[in-house]
Every structure is written in structure tokens, then in C-alpha cells.
Design brief:
The structure holds two protein chains of two kinds.
Chain A (H helix, E strand, L loop, with lengths): L24 H14 L6 E5 L14 E4 L5 H11 L4 E7 H7 L1 H9 L5 E6 L2 E2 L5 E2 L18 H4 L5 H5 L5 E8 L3 H19 L4 E7 L3 H4 L3 H15 L3 E5 L3
Parallel strand pairs in A: 1-2, 1-3, 3-4, 4-8, 7-8
Antiparallel strand pairs in A: 5-6, 7-9
Helix pairs in contact in A: 1-7, 3-4
Chain B lengths: L7 E4 H11 L4 E4 L7 H12 L3 E4 L3 H13 L4 E5 L1 H16 L4 E7 L15 H5 L10 E3 L4 H18 L2 E7 H5 L1 E4 L27 E2 L8 H19 L3 E4 L6 E4 L2 H16 L4 E6 L1 E3 L3 H10 L2 E6 L5 H8 L5 E6 L8 H10 L1
Classes of the chains: A alpha/beta, B alpha/beta.
């Protein structure tokens, strides 16, 4: 007898994404959709997209979605969640959005303990605009605006968002994961599930930082991008759970 | 219909805030700035009484984007600010316009450029009537000139915002915000409600998932959106222009002014009439859409006009573009917190 063991989550649409080979967005989208399915939230969820490669996530998530201004996703999500506390609200943001232009909105939403799930995809470059320096670009990393590599003296050191946010009282769940291999993807899946569960339990702000590859802008083969995340990014950004109020 | 409800001595900013409550506004997001702080202070107490949400945001940027989120989910929502704060909000106002989302934004103007002072001014006319942020869009703009109108126009602003799915601005100044006058804090008629069930984001329950956005990358979609917006603005220009005319029937000279300036102008024209000078007043109430047809019609027979503003000539540009070329238009303006006196305007009337 044949048994179906693997299927597309109901909360994902049946289309091919525009993401590049080796990009982590497709995997992270799937994990978020699995969480939405798992908790039965498909018809009670609003996702807030940010400016960046994932701005077109409305094509891929089969849930209500709103496009926020660059950096303002967590303010926009606050407006939805405060006025409609019964909805499940998540933001999906890149490093430029969440950690640079939107840093104030991020910190204040987290500090207020907004009952929102923030998915933060950190790939250490600005993807959509063509590979410029991000707030999370690694020391020495070459980008299209740091041709000789990022230096502490000139650009400052990268921001470790999970560590920063875990210091705030409003944050109930905070974990950093990666999606460079299947084991890590399972870890990431668990974290994203916990982040949605945290919101459902009304505990406070839930944050998952996902280290992800951008091979196109790193000028790497897709597989080398995964190795770079494992070998270089994970060294600077240690994986782990920084806070879990329910643990 | 004559309203017979009791009048109470009310501050303009409070009239705005209570007007919002009466209009069914159930969420406010804002950041403190003088001279409009009474609005958030009042609503921080009043909104919870009616089951609404008040949240002081970390900035005007955050405020306007919280407004956008609440609006997308279907709540009647507002924010208020002044000059520098309204400048920061332009990003969100552009996004509201592009995403076709209703919201009410109150600008109790303060002087600029820059941080400016808190004295009364009308320096934000350009910003309010030209869209203000990036992109080819418009916001409806209402200009009250007394405390009663601060209340009435706020109620009306929520209706217009929902009717057109577009941001609506209330353009006031420190005099209108801070002064107290007797006002009736009951709407003229029950505020109109508009069905939002076919566009709001409230979870894709028994319907396909929806998306609200302002970016369209494919084919001609972005151009198409802009034409949709333009058609909406044409409907506004057709149906919404509003102006008040006083003593225009026999006027040989017309004073054109809005808001506080119009009030002062009315006092000056009253004095002029007492002295036998046949002057009239034209007061645009909607600054966008501008009451072009009414002003053009007056320009067909009144060939001398005096534009009075608390700036260096912003509405003046609209008046010059609207009236027939043989109308002689003069200007009197006071920028940076200066308020013209009736005597000052009377003198200009006599010179015109």
C-alpha cells in the first residue's frame, strides 16, 4: 500500500518561487507554513512582509499578508495585533530590514512584549538590492559596498540581534538557528514552532533568527554558500536558545 | 438640521479627540509633540473606556505604520502630530495611499522649516495638498476654522477615509488646537459606516487569502494601480470640494483664506463692510480637492482678490492657477508664527 509521507504544507501556494539556488528563503517559508498548519492557524493569520527578497512572500504563503514599509514590519504588525488580538501575526524580515533601518521598531516591539512572532532571516548581505553590506555582514566580508572587506574601524562590528533582544523583558522566546543542512533545518523547524506557540500562549515577543545563505550575492556555488554559513557565520553568530520563558 | 444639544467649553485638540471617538475610531497610535499633546493625552483615557486601543509609539515612523496595520485589519484608526512629526509620517502616508487604506491624520501645524517654533502657522499647505510623500498620490485635506469644526470635520474625516479608502488629513494650527470655544460634541448625524468585509486582512477564513501592498513589479500593474488612484481622485474632485462664501453676492473684492486666516479675514471684512467697502470672503474647507469651480465662478465677476495666509504664499499658487487671468490677485502673508490682525488685513483690503 502506498502512503503519502511528504506533501506541500496547506499554507504554501503551489508555485515556483523566485528565490535563487541555495537561498534559504524557500526552506524558511516552508517551516513557517508547517507551523501555521500544525497549529491550525491558516485562516486566522496575517503575515507582514518586509522590503527585501521576501517582499513577494504573498505569492507563496496562502494566508493574508500585508506589505510593510522598509524596516516597519514590527510597527505594522503591532497595529494589527493590538487591534485584533485573536489573529496570529508574524513578520518575515531580512537583516537590512530588521537590524538596520528598522532597528528602533524591532527593539521597541520586542520590549513592549508584542505578542507577535518575528522570523528574522540573516544572510549577511542586502539580497534584493544586489549584495551591499548589511548590519550583519561579517568582519572582513567583501560586499559590493565593502570591496576591501568590512572593518570594525570603518563600519563597526556586526549586530548580534538574538543576543541583544534576549536582554529585553518583553521577549519571551529567542533562538538562533541555521538552515544549511537537514539537521539544522529540523532544529529551525522546532524553533519556529516554539515561536508560534509562544504567541498562542500569549507569553510575549517571539524571535527566531535564521542564518541563511545568499550564494548569488556571495558569488558562490549554492553548496559553498551552505558551507560558508556553517563555517563562517555560525562562528560569529553562535546557534542556540537565548530565552524561552516557557522552558 | 439645527443641533440643539448642550454646548460645552472645549479645547480644539479635545474636540478632535472626542470627534474621533464619536466617529467610531477605536485605535490611536502617536508620539508626543507640541502643540497637539492634548489629543493623545485625552485618548489615552478615553479610548479604553470605549474598548479601543491607545498606544504611545516610539516615533512618528512607528506611529503611522501601526496606523497602517490597524487600518489593514479594518479598524477605524488615527494619529496626530505636528510639522516635524508629520514629515516623518510621509513614508507611511504614501504607503497608506498606495495600499488604498483609510486613516485620519491630524496635523496641528507648527512653524518650520526644521524644528521651527510652536506658534500658529499654515506653512504645511504644500505638504498636505500635494501628497507630501513620494509617488503620484493625493490625500483629502480638511481645514477647520473653529472648535466646532475641529469636532465636526474629524467625524467627517473618518467617513471620507473609509468611503475612498484613502488617508484624510485635518490641517489645523496652534490657535485652533489650543483655544477653547463652546462646541457641541455630538455629531450632526450618526457617522456613516462603510462595509470593509471585501478587502480587510482578518484571516483567510472561508475565503481566499488576501494581500494588501503598494509594490507591483509585473508588467503594467504599477501603472494600472496609479490609474485606479487617479480615477479615485477624480471622483473626490467631482464630489467633495467644499467652501464657505460670505458677502460674495455684491463683492467687488474677495478675500481668499482658509483656517485661522479666514477667521481673521472675516473680522477684517466685517469692518470693511461697516466702512462701506464691498468685500467678501471665500474660505476653502477642503484644501484637496480644492473648490476650484466655486472660486473660478467667483473670478468671473469679482476681479480683485486678496489671498491671506500664515505662510509666504502657498495656496496663492492654487488661486493663481484657478482664477481667470484678468483677475488681479494680491497676497498678504505672515510666516514663522506671525498671525495677521484684522486691521492689517483691512489695510490690505483698502490698498487692493
Amino acid at each position: 500500500m502506498e502512503t503519502k509521507v511528504f506533501a506541500r504544507p496547506k499554507s504554501l501556494t503551489d508555485v515556483t518561487t523566485h528565490y535563487c539556488p541555495g537561498c534559504g528563503h524557500g526552506v524558511v517559508h516552508r517551516l513557517v507554513a508547517e507551523a501555521i498548519d500544525h497549529f491550525g492557524l491558516r485562516d486566522n493569520t496575517v503575515g507582514v512582509a518586509s522590503a527585501g527578497c521576501s517582499v513577494m512572500m504573498y505569492k507563496y504563503f496562502d494566508v493574508d499578508t500585508l506589505e510593510a514599509a522598509h524596516g516597519r514590519a514590527l510597527a505594522t504588525a503591532t497595529g494589527i495585533k493590538r487591534t485584533h488580538p485573536d489573529l496570529t501575526v508574524f513578520t518575515y524580515q531580512g537583516d537590512g530590514d530588521l537590524a538596520s533601518i528598522g532597528l528602533a521598531e524591532t527593539i521597541h516591539a520586542a520590549n513592549r512584549g508584542e505578542k507577535i512572532t518575528a522570523i528574522f532571516v540573516n544572510n549577511a548581505v542586502y539580497g534584493m538590492t544586489g549584495g551591499q553590506m548589511a548590519p550583519t555582514t561579517l568582519p572582513g566580508q567583501k560586499t559590493s559596498t565593502t570591496p576591501a572587506g568590512r572593518t570594525k574601524a570603518r563600519e563597526g562590528s556586526p549586530l548580534r540581534m538574538a543576543e541583544m533582544l534576549s536582554q529585553l523583558d518583553g521577549v519571551a522566546f529567542c533562538q538562533r538557528v541555521a538552515v544549511y543542512d537537514p539537521d539544522q533545518i529540523y532544529e529551525a523547524r522546532e524553533a519556529i514552532f516554539r515561536a508560534f506557540e509562544t504567541q498562542l500562549e500569549g507569553l510575549g515577543f517571539a524571535f527566531v533568527e535564521v542564518l541563511s545563505a545568499c550564494p548569488t550575492n556571495m558569488r558562490m556555488k549554492p553548496i559553498d554558500g551552505q558551507h560558508w554559513v556553517e563555517e563562517s557565520m555560525c562562528k560569529f553568530y553562535p546557534l542556540g536558545t537565548f530565552k524561552d520563558d516557557d522552558a | 438640521m439645527e443641533r440643539c444639544e448642550r454646548k460645552t467649553l472645549t479645547m480644539g485638540n479635545i474636540a478632535v479627540a472626542e470627534g474621533a471617538i464619536q466617529a467610531g475610531c477605536r485605535a490611536y497610535f502617536g508620539y508626543p509633540i507640541t502643540p497637539q499633546n492634548e489629543i493623545p493625552e485625552y485618548l489615552s483615557r478615553r479610548l479604553p473606556e470605549v474598548g479601543g486601543i491607545f498606544l504611545q509609539a516610539e516615533s512618528e515612523l512607528a506611529s503611522i505604520n501601526m496606523v497602517l496595520g490597524a487600518s489593514a485589519a479594518g479598524t477605524r484608526v488615527m494619529t496626530s502630530s505636528s510639522g516635524p512629526g508629520i514629515s516623518l509620517m510621509q513614508e507611511g502616508i504614501s504607503f497608506l495611499a498606495g495600499s488604498q487604506l483609510p486613516a485620519v491624520i491630524v496635523n496641528v501645524m507648527r512653524c518650520g522649516p526644521g524644528l521651527g517654533g510652536i506658534k500658529p502657522t499654515q506653512a504645511d499647505y504644500f505638504q498636505a495638498t500635494r501628497g507630501g510623500g513620494h509617488g503620484d498620490y493625493r490625500t483629502l485635506v480638511l481645514a477647520p476654522n473653529n472648535v466646532q469644526e475641529m469636532f465636526d470635520f474629524t467625524v467627517r474625516a473618518f467617513e471620507l477615509a473609509d468611503k475612498y479608502r484613502n488617508p484624510v488629513l485635518i490641517l489645523a494650527d496652534a490657535i485652533l488646537g489650543q483655544m477653547k470655544e463652546p462646541a457641541t460634541l455630538v455629531p450632526e448625524y450618526p457617522p456613516l459606516d462603510f462595509d470593509k468585509t471585501d478587502w480587510i486582512l482578518n484571516g483567510a477564513h472561508q475565503r481566499p487569502a488576501r494581500n494588501l501592498r503598494s509594490m507591483y513589479l509585473e508588467d503594467d500593474d504599477q501603472e494600472d494601480l496609479n490609474y485606479v488612484l487617479q480615477r479615485k481622485y477624480e471622483r473626490m474632485e467631482q464630489d467633495e470640494p467644499l467652501a464657505e462664501e460670505r458677502w460674495t453676492e455684491d463683492a467687488g473684492l474677495l478675500v481668499v483664506a482658509f483656517g485661522t486666516s479666514a477667521r481673521v479675514a472675516r473680522a477684517a471684512v466685517t469692518q470693511a463692510r461697516n466702512e462701506g467697502i464691498r468685500a467678501g470672503v471665500f474660505r476653502p474647507i477642503t484644501l484637496y480637492p480644492y473648490p476650484r469651480a466655486a472660486l473660478r465662478a467667483l473670478g468671473e465677476r469679482i476681479k480683485r482678490m486678496l489671498v491671506v495666509e500664515m505662510n509666504c504664499g502657498q495656496m496663492l499658487e492654487d488661486v493663481l492657477a484657478i482664477v481667470p487671468p484678468d483677475v488681479e490677485v494680491r497676497f498678504h502673508g505672515r510666516p514663522g508664527g506671525g498671525v495677521p490682525t484684522p486691521d492689517e488685513i483691512l489695510e490690505k483690503i483698502k490698498e487692493s
